[in-house]
Specification:
Elements: E1 29-32, H1 42-56, H2 62-66, H3 73-81, H4 90-108, H5 118-129, E2 133-137, H6 143-149, E3 158-160, H7 173-182, E4 189-193, H8 196-204, E5 208-212, E6 223-225, H9 232-235
Parallel strand pairs: 1-2, 1-4, 2-3, 4-5, 5-6
Helix pairs in contact: 1-4, 3-4
The protein binds 6-O-phosphono-beta-D-glucopyranose and magnesium ion.
Amino acid sequence: MTDPTTVPLEPTEPGEAGAQGAESNPYAAVIFDLDGVIVHTDELHYRAWKGLADRLGLPFSRTDNDQLRGVSRMRSLELLLAGRADSYSEAEKVALADEKNKDYRDLLNELSPDDVSEAVRCTLWALQEGGYRLAIGSSSRNAGLILRHIELDGWFEAVADGSMITHSKPDPEVFLKAAELLGLSPAECVIVEDARSGVDAALAGGFHCFGIGDAAGHPDVTWAIESLPDMLAVLLPGKPLPPIVY
Ligand code: BG6
Ligand code: MG
């Protein structure tokens, strides 16, 4: 991996409003979605949901899995059950969701720091060096576990996750919670999302939002980006981009 200490960025005081982009933007913090932005847990979700679907004799493809991006665990189960959702009691659905989550957590044991791309690492590093505060806003109740497995937990000053909210994306609750933990208003934070429902959540909460992957196709996303370091051109204008192998 490129040695980030060679990147020519001048550090500023962490938490300084607007950081190095102060002249051109009002942001003091970046709130990242976790799954699909910081680390690709999609395949592990797929394997866990696919196992459950096979046991129930239901079809479930990778395309179906893509539709569950940003969707809560219980809502994902209802989509997987499709027309059969009404044949299960609430208690049975909770048991099925627990079964999937147990398999998923077993699979999360495979996650390691090697699963974090160089583009993600360099972006986090450049933003932190540029004075931005970093936070997570994730629908996942496993966010803390994932961050520990990939050893990035120390990078985020605040982590708002699925265990702290009653309404999942597209409701803005998780992002508002992250902003509250930071003590900032939505106008002072910018969101990074890979799910269209996450972009809806950000906009509903009064945040500006970077969309990557599927979310880049959202018609109202503030900035569509191809790769995470693209956000540095907006947040650290005039600074050379870190020398990353994309
Ligand atoms: C989101 C994922 O981040 O978290 C969804 O994109 C997932 O696919 C949701 O269903 C809830 O995650 P978990 O880990 O609490 O089941
Ligand atoms: Mg996501």
